């Protein structure tokens, strides 16, 4: 039997979603709680591999139960398993899925958002949840720069060095920057993302704001296919998977 969970989580205390040896992960906590609920070892597969410290407002994962697992009414699963999970992980919905269903291969596109706390004064309550940035950001200028990410491109310049992927071409459907009070938020939707791609995009936009990279340079950076042409990699603190669209 296979269930599809919609979950959300804070990544502050975890080394990402994917199971890792000797590390605390979201999938590991889900497997632990599932074993307690269903009385058997369960396999968990996610729609994405979020990195250490990255958060998710909408994330899908499949939970595969062996034949001898306890039967739990599907409508009671969220409340039951949430009692067994840490407070920073929440199962929002659960439903039956076809046997062997893997949301990673069923994801059409994903949206990530990066939240920058753009105020000079410190706010301890946003620690590890937003990137503190004390210098004023012109969100309208950054929004116009971010539009240059849209389209099908080879994003080698926006991938961490040493990554091993079959192709570095991705299609960005939308990208933009908005301000919400003291928060400046970069959002990007694509059919897939390279390792650290969003964090390097944000670092590039901040370098443009600081004058370290000239305005209008993003198309040239993409064309260069050279990681050193882009900006720095911002910390994971402000990064959220905000939406995953399944087939």
Question: Can you describe what's shown?
Answer:
There is one protein chain. With 247 residues, this protein is of the alpha+beta class. The chain has two domains: 2-101, Alpha-Beta Plaits, CATH 3.30.70.580; 109-246, Alpha-Beta Plaits (2-Layer Sandwich), CATH 3.30.70. The protein is 21% helix and 31% strand. It is built from six helices and ten strands, in the order βαββαβαββαβββααβ. Strands 1, 2, 3, 4, 5, 6, 7, 8, 9 and 10 form a ten-stranded mixed beta sheet that branches. β8 (169-180) and β9 (183-190) form a beta hairpin. It is globular.
**Content of β-strand:** 25-35%
User: What average pLDDT do the residues reach?
Assistant: 97
Q: Tell me about the biggest sheet?
A: 10 strands, mixed
**What portion of residues is helical?**
10-25%
**Count of beta strands:** 10
Order of helices and strands: EHEEHEHEEHEEEHHE
Distance N to C terminus: 20 Å
Structural category is alpha+beta
**What general form does the structure show?**
globular
Kindly give the count of domains.
2
CATH topology category name of the largest domain: Alpha-Beta Plaits
Q: Which homologous superfamily in CATH is the superfamily of the largest domain? A: Pseudouridine synthase I, catalytic domain, C-terminal subdomain
Examine the secondary-structure arrangement and name the CATH architecture of the largest domain. 2-Layer Sandwich
- Annotation field: number of helices: 6
Q: What is the CATH class designation of the largest domain?
A: Alpha Beta
Low-confidence region ranges = none
Radius of gyration: 19 Å
């Amino acid at each position: 039997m296979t269930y599809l969970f919609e979950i959300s989580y804070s990544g502050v205390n975890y080394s990402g979603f994917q199971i890792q040896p000797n590390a605390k992960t979201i999938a590991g906590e889900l497997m632990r709680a599932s074993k307690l609920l269903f009385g058997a070892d369960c396999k968990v597969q996610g729609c994405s591999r979020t990195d250490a410290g990255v958060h998710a407002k909408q994330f899908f994962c499949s939970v595969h139960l062996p034949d001898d697992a306890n039967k739990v009414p599907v409508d009671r699963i969220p409340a039951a398993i949430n009692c067994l999970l840490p407070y920073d992980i929440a199962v929002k919905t659960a439903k039956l899925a076809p046997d062997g269903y893997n949301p990673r291969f069923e994801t059409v596109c994903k949206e990530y958002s990066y939240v920058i706390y753009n105020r000079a004064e410190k706010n301890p309550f946003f620690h590890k949840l937003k990137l503190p940035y004390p210098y004023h950001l012109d969100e309208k200028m950054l929004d116009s720069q971010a539009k240059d990410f849209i389209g099908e491109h080879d994003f080698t310049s926006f991938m961490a060095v040493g990554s091993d992927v079959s192709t570095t071409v991705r299609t960005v459907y939308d990208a933009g920057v908005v301000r919400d009070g003291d928060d400046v938020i970069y959002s990007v939707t694509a059919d897939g993302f390279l390792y650290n791609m969003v964090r390097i995009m944000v670092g590039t936009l901040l370098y443009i704001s600081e004058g370290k990279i000239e305005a209008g340079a993003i198309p040239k950076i993409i064309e260069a296919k050279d990681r050193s042409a882009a900006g720095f990699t911002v910390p994971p603190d402000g990064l959220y998977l905000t939406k995953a669209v399944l087939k």
